[in-house]
Amino acid sequence: MIPVTKPFLPPVEEFKKYIDGIWQRQWLTNMGPLASDLEMKLKQHLKLKHLLFVTNGTVALQMAIKALDLKGEIITTPFSFVATTSSIVWEGCTPVFVDIDEYSLNINPSKIEAAITENTSAILATHVYGNPCDVVAIEKIAKKHKLKVIYDAAHAFGVEINGKSVFEYGDISICSLHATKLYHSTEGGLVISQDAALLKKMAYIRNFGISGFDSFAELGLNGKNSEFHAAMGLVNLKYIKRIHQKRKELTWGYDEKLKYLKAVKPIWHKDATINYAYYPIVLESEELLLEIKTKLDGNEIFTRRYFYPSLASSLPYLESQSLAVTDDISQRVLCLPLYYDLTLEEVDLICRLMLRVQNN
Ligand SMILES: *Cc1c(COP(=O)(O)O)cnc(C)c1O
C-alpha cells in the first residue's frame, strides 16, 4: 500500500531523550523550555525576528484574524484547505471568494479589486502547495485600499523569495506543523509577524489574554502548545535538510517520468525556492483523472483530489457560488504520493501505471 502521505518519524531514541527531560522537569505545557527552545531554533532556521509556536494552524488563523481586529468581509481564495475559509466564518467575518490564477493556482490579484467593498477589511490568501502568491501585487492592492493581509502559509515551510522567508510577507503569516505537513510537531502551528506589537498581542491572545497575575490585556483563547509537541518539532528540525533532499529527488523522479503525461504542474513563483511539500498535477480532463485514480486505487496506491471541491461551492454554511477557473482546476487536480519514506522505485511504479492508463 502506498498512501498519499505519511508523517516523518525520527528515530524513537532521539524523541525519548526529550521525553526523559520532560519527566525530570515535570513541566508539561504552558510555554515550557522545549517550546521556547523550538521558537528560538525556528527563528534561526527561518531567519525570522518574531514567531510564536501555537496549538495548530487553524488556531493560528483565528488568532491572526482576532489580532488584526478584522470585521466584515475578508477576500480569500476558494482553492485551499477548508480551515482557510472556516476560520473567517468562525471569527464572525464573511469570506468573499476571488477566483484563482490558472497557472499559479493562487488567488488572482488582478481580480481582487473588483471584489473590494466598503466592508472589506482584509485579504487572506493561501500560498497553495507552498508556491508563494504574487505578494508584491497583493501588497500594492492592500496599501491602496488600506486592507490587512494574512497569508495562510500552512504549506510553505522553508520557502524563500529572493532570500527572504515567505513568512515575512503580509501583516501576519501562519504555518501549520500538522503531522501531514512537510515539517511537523505532531500537531502545531506558527504565527509570524514583522510587527513586534502585533506579536505581543498574539502572545497575550495565545494565553487567554492574561497579561499579569490579576490582569487581562486581550480577548484570548488557549493557543498554547505542549512540551511533547515541541519535542517532536525539535527532533524533526534536525532532519529538515534530509527531508528536503529526499523530497526533491522524488519530485525530480516524477518530473522525469511524467514528461509525456497529459498534465501540467502549477507554475512556481519565479523568485522563490521550492520546498517540495506536494506533488500536484492538473490533468487534461477530469475523465483522465478519474481513470488514473481508479487504476491507482486498484493497486493500493492512494492519491488525493487536493483541493476538490471548490470551497466556494461545497460548504453547507455558505451560499454556493461558481468560479470558472477554480471549478475547472479543482476537477482536474490530483496530488500524488510524496513523503520521506517513499522510494524512487515506487515513484517509477506509480508513473508507469499512470502512463499505461493514458496510453490505453
Ligand atoms: C493544514 C492546513 C491548515 C490547518 O492547519 P492545522 O494545523 O491542521 O490546523 C490551514 N490551511 C491550509 C492551507 C492547510 O493545508
TrEMBL record:
<protein>
    <submittedName>
        <fullName>DegT/DnrJ/EryC1/StrS family aminotransferase</fullName>
        <ecNumber>2.6.1.-</ecNumber>
    </submittedName>
</protein>
<keyword id="KW-0808">Transferase</keyword>
<keyword id="KW-0032">Aminotransferase</keyword>
<dbReference type="InterPro" id="IPR015421">
    <property type="entry name" value="PyrdxlP-dep_Trfase_major"/>
</dbReference>
<dbReference type="InterPro" id="IPR000653">
    <property type="entry name" value="DegT/StrS_aminotransferase"/>
</dbReference>
<keyword id="KW-0663">Pyridoxal phosphate</keyword>
<dbReference type="InterPro" id="IPR015424">
    <property type="entry name" value="PyrdxlP-dep_Trfase"/>
</dbReference>
<comment type="similarity">
    <text>Belongs to the DegT/DnrJ/EryC1 family.</text>
</comment>
<dbReference type="GO" id="GO:0008483">
    <property type="term" value="F:transaminase activity"/>
</dbReference>
<dbReference type="Pfam" id="PF01041">
    <property type="entry name" value="DegT_DnrJ_EryC1"/>
</dbReference>
